[in-house]
Amino acid sequence: MRILITNDDGINAPGLIALQDIATDLAGADGEVWTVAPAFEQSGVGHCISYTHPMMFSQLGPRRYAAEGSPADCVLVGLHEVLKDTPPDLILSGVNRGNNSAENALYSGTLGAAMEAALQGVPAMALSQYFGPANYKSDAPFDTATRHAPALVRKILAATPTEQADYRLFYNINFPPVLPDDVKGTRVVTQGFRRGSNFSVEPHFSPSGKRFVWIKGGNQQIMTEPGTDAAVNLDGYISVTPMRADLTAHDTLEALKGIE
């Protein structure tokens, strides 16, 4: 198996080392793992692409490249330049430092890479490691993902139906904020929503009096509805959420027929 990996935390992020280990396990002795990752951290850029300016990319080692762009850019570089003659069988993004459950998925560059892969017709999964009191200060914070991901990815690949849909499936996988031995299992769930927790800003002033703001995240320990991603993560389960890039609100189409 030939696997392309990327992330949004940057080429030097420890989560990418964890993903390299996961992908190497999946690829097998005769497989290949290629890396095209952002040269700098790109957290929160979503599905952004560098449409209005060129970007530099460079080879750092065997099968290892860095691009001065977003995670989605890295997927495009990987598919249409680095591996243009030998396309990958699978694209993995992560392992993100922090969860991409619930509304976080909408901002995530980790998910943005998987979405771009799906739009390009390549199977893709985004992997993220939830953090909380049980694992935040662990000496090996990505061990839960590293230990459980290979078998889970194999199961998902085996269960994924063959399809030719315009908007292909990709998967959002979040590993719970617990140590590896404390994982209770896996749940296939919908995306949740953390009520009362959202992004905001925190104002600051420079020594010269100029006004700035920092973007500030919300409380990640708030439960979503039962049977949704963050809820099962906080209960010790890995969440798997199948996704598509189709943003249509299908549940409202019939109600809007009267405006035609």
TrEMBL record:
GO molecular function, one term: 3'-nucleotidase activity
Keyword line: Cytoplasm, Hydrolase, Metal-binding, Nucleotide-binding
InterPro entries attached to this UniProt entry: SurE, SurE-like_Pase/nucleotidase, SurE-like_sf
CC cofactor: a divalent metal cation
Keyword hit for Signal: no
Reactions mediated catalytically: a ribonucleoside 5'-phosphate + H2O = a ribonucleoside + phosphate
UniProt record similarity statement: Belongs to the SurE nucleotidase family.
Function per UniProt: Nucleotidase that shows phosphatase activity on nucleoside 5'-monophosphates.
Name of the protein described by the UniProt record: 5'-nucleotidase SurE
Organism field: Aliisedimentitalea scapharcae
Lineage of the organism: Bacteria, Pseudomonadati, Pseudomonadota, Alphaproteobacteria, Rhodobacterales
